[in-house]
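Folded chain entry
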Amino acid sequence: MSVEEQVREFGRVWAAAEERGDTEVLAELVTDGFRLVGPLGFVLDRDQWLARYAGGGLVTEKLGWTEVEVREFGGTAIAIGVHEQVATHQGNPVNGRFRATHVLVHADDRWRLAGIHLSPIGVPFTPGGDRR
């Protein structure tokens, strides 16, 4: 299986675990030094990220990981795609569609997630100030 196929399969496993709120699987998928940068610029470490599901705080009904482009750099892979979620956090809707960058590292014959960065999807800025 190619690196791209491995990373895409990893993404499917990750998204399914998020939908189930399966913190045991999620803990196995990430590195100890994992960080998430959220769409509003907040940063969660591994323990904070896993704790989102504690006591039903985060409920993810649907999580799509699509339009994924994978690039490999030795033992590191960068996957950029679209993260689309239907979810609630502490009873409040946190639905959204974000551009996401996943940083994966290959160690001990498997891929693990070292970081996720989420950004709102906007319109590119072009020279001259035009937005298209």
Summary: The CA atoms of residues 47 and 119 lie 22 Å apart. The domain at 3-120 is CATH 3.10.450.50 (Nuclear Transport Factor 2; Chain: A,).
